[in-house]
Amino acid sequence: MSLVTLSHVCSHLQNASRARLSLTSIPYTNLTLSISHLLLTTGFISNLTLGTTTQPSPTSSEQQIQITQRNISSLRLWLSLKYSPHTNHPVLGSMHMISKPTKRIWLDTEALGRIVRGRDAGYVDGLKNPGECLFVSTDRGVLEIREAVRRRVGGMVLCRVL
After folding, report:
1. In the 8-state DSSP scheme, what is residue 19?
2. Residues of the chain with pLDDT under 50
3. Rounded Cα distance, 128 and 108, in Å
4. What pTM does this model have?
C-alpha cells in the first residue's frame, strides 16, 4: 500500500473540487479503488468509472476495458464530483491524510470508538462535523470508521474527508 499515491489522490481530489471540475481521473490501484468506492457509497462523488488516461470507458457492456498486464499502467479511475444544488458548493470540501508515509497511525477498536463519539484518540481528532468520514485500512479491507467500529476491527487510519 502506497501512502504517497494516496496523498497525491487526496490533494488532487481536493483541488479538483475547489476548481469546480465535474470529472477528474486518478491512478488505478487497489487502494484508490477502495477509497473511491467508499467516497461513492458515502455520497461525496456521484459516479465511478474505469477508463484510460484520455477518457472514461463507454457505458455499453460490450465495449468494457479488459485489464491485462500490458495496459494496467495506463488505466485510470474517473470520478464525477458532486456539488450542492442550492449553493453550488462542493460536497467534498477537504480531504487530507492522517497517516503519513513516514508516520503511520494504527488504532485499536477502543480508540476508533472514541473518535466516532467525537473525542480525540492519540494523534487523531474526533469526528465533530456532520457528514465527516474517516477511512481505516483493516485486515478486512478499507472501511469507513463507523463500519470498522461496528465490526470491531482496528487498523491504520488513512484519511479524513469533510
Report:
1. T
2. 60-62
3. 20
4. 0.90
